[in-house]
Amino acid sequence: MPQEEVDLVVKNACQLLTLQSDEKGPHRGVRMEDLGLVSDGAVAASEGLIVAVGTTDEVIAAISVGPQTTIIDARNMVVMPGFVDPHTHPVFAGSREEEFELRIKGASYQEIAASGGGIRSSVRSLRQATYEQLIELARPRLDRMLSFGITTAEAKSGYGLSLTDELKSLEVIAQLNREHPLDLIPTFLGAHEVPDEFRQDRQEYIRLIIEEMIPQVAERKLAEFCDIFCEQGVFDVAESREILTAAKEAGLKLKLHADELAASGGSVLAAELGAISADHLVFVDERGIRAMAGAGVIPVLLPGTTFSLGLDRYAPARRMIEAGLPVALATDLNPGSCLTESMPMIITLACLGMKMTAAEAITAATINAACAVDRGDSLGSLEPGRRADLVIWDMDNYKVLPYHFGVNLVDTVIKSGRVVYRQGRFFHTEA
Ligand code: NIG
Ligand code: FE
């Protein structure tokens, strides 16, 4: 019986990593090692969705191709789902390389923040930038993400810290999501820091977040998540509980920057409030690990931040995997603590700094990352009915990914069944 013609076939992949699993949800424990690898694999897609996955023979037998079908020969290449980056701050203006150099000379991230630099410095820059300028600044960052195999990213506000500038940042994310092939999932991060004008009256800033920002953000549907920097010297656990409870009541899902610089209790709070993820977790303790495991909170680890802050302590990924937590990975792209769009670099750091295997790190950056942004049913694995977001790698086995670092081995990126990047060129609007 003739089947319907498909739009795209990628075939002959020496390794196709499907990340398929019989169980729903994120992959935990030893399941993080199982990439659902098919040798000589193929994927076919129609109307943006996957319609067949298997060996090349199986897929070719199951589909029909016509003159409109794009056929890609992935001989000697690895094919896997597009990365989901579940933690990024891509909307910012200005640049903080002077702080990078100060840290090299011995200043700490906290010292720089306390003296008025850090996040507050980026807030001053963003407030001076127009909506159009912010779009122009963010677009090349999204292009770079795409070129490193990221096909969906969470994107936070958090450098505005006034009603107008937070809404402006979220509108920028909404516009970029419309115009750029990368899918963006918006997060409101008004509680990223206390801005200069409220340093003497932080209660008033918290009131502004709760009574003005959250209702407007929710009403205009500008964010799906609300996040907070829960840390000593930023927002403590009681303040974080108050803000996040208001966000939850307004219908936002929750995320926390938790236990990044000290064991501040953010991971326990994430569990208490039913947050979807707790992020950073460099200083998470056993209590936090147990609480997250009990409540189903996904730990999103950001090893690029430890690396770029010049620190030597990484989040205890092995302990978390042992405790049955489904570890996810993200770039944390931001102008202060981690300026990178490279998920492959993050995977290398996860392997070297946190002793994750290549397979665990790939699981963490695909299916587990998809679950960390509540897209576990549609992204992060190659299965019929899921979005046809794929990366084709110029490597003959996936273990090369962390091993060959500091270069871009992405050959082709496919978003919703369309080639959007190939061998250094972007195809944003053409097929
Ligand atoms: O995830 N920790 C807080 N927020 C960012 C850094 C923000 C900045 O320094 O601009 C992070 O590391
Ligand atoms: Fe962050």
Commentary on this structure:
The chain is an alpha/beta fold. Helix content is 36%, strand content 22%. The protein contains 16 helices and 17 strands. Strands 1, 2, 3, 4, 5, 14, 15, 16 and 17 form a 9-stranded mixed sheet that branches. β7, α6 (163-179) and β8 form a beta-alpha-beta unit. α6 (163-179) runs parallel beside α7 (202-219). The model has no long low-confidence stretch (mean pLDDT 97).
Measure the end-to-end span.
29 Å
Q: pLDDT below 50 for ≥5 consecutive residues: which ranges? A: none
**CATH architectural type of the largest domain:** Alpha-Beta Barrel
The beta-strand count equals 17
**Residues in β-strands, percent:** 15-25%
Helix content: 25-40%
What kind of sheet is the major sheet? Answer: 9 strands, mixed
Radius of gyration: 21 Å
Rounded mean pLDDT score: 97
How many domains comprise the coordinates? 2
Number of helices: 16
Report the structural category: alpha/beta
Task: Specify the CATH class of the largest domain.
Answer: Alpha Beta
Distinct ligands: N-(iminomethyl)-L-glutamic acid, fe (iii) ion
* CATH fold annotation of the largest domain: TIM Barrel
Apparent shape: globular
CATH superfamily of the largest domain: Metal-dependent hydrolases
Layout of strands and helices, then pairs:
Layout: E1 8-17, E2 37-46, E3 49-55, H1 56-62, E4 70-73, E5 78-81, E6 83-85, H2 97-104, H3 109-114, H4 119-128, H5 131-147, E7 150-156, H6 163-179, E8 183-191, H7 202-219, E9 225-230, H8 237-249, E10 253-258, H9 266-273, E11 277-280, H10 286-295, E12 298-301, H11 303-308, H12 317-322, E13 328-329, H13 343-354, H14 358-365, H15 367-372, E14 390-393, H16 400-403, E15 410-415, E16 418-422, E17 425-426
Parallel strand pairs: 1-4, 1-5, 6-7, 7-8, 8-9, 9-10, 10-11, 11-12, 12-13
Antiparallel strand pairs: 1-2, 2-3, 5-14, 14-15, 15-16, 16-17
The chain binds N-(iminomethyl)-L-glutamic acid and fe (iii) ion (FE).
The site of fe (iii) ion has 5 residues, from loops.
